[in-house]
Amino acid sequence: MKVKNIITLLVTHLSVGVFGVALGIYLLPILTAPTPPTESEINKISSHAQYSGSFTKDLKDSDAFHWGEGQVWIDSDYITLMGRLAPGPDYKLYLSPEFIETEVDFNRLKTEMVLVGDVKTFDNFAVKVPQGIDLSRYNTVIVWCEAFGEFITSAKYQ
Length: 158
What we know:
The protein is an alpha+beta fold. 28% of the residues lie in helices and 32% in strands. It contains three helices and eight strands; from the N terminus they run ααββββαββββ. The protein has helices at residues 3-32, 39-46, 103-109, and strands spanning 51-55, 68-74, 78-85, 91-96, 114-119, 123-128, 140-145, 150-156. The strands form two sheets. The chain has a four-stranded antiparallel sheet with strand order 1-2-3-6, covered by helices on one side.
């Protein structure tokens, strides 16, 4: 086999392998996501909400692959979403003392934020709020992709 053929095969096979791994990282959370809470479950949980806000697609760092839309409710037990998120891996839910809509601002304020928990569903979610979090110290709920350091969406709630 000629050297040129070997190099071509090596490059093409490595390219397909890298593409496959990237696709798997993106698709695995979608394929393994638990069943999302139903609209009636979200309505029941959010009926005691102290605060609410909205995720919108028109934020500065939101794009075709990183967005959220829908109504968010916040109380001392749960943060819930009736809406959708762009699917992806390793989503985390944070509370921030300032409204942010960019990765730069997220990284600048991360030490002042509190991690609430993992977001494992992309159509509606209900994330349990750990005890001891004072919701009044924050005004924004944020979905962040921890694995890739990507801003997904945020909503100001007070």
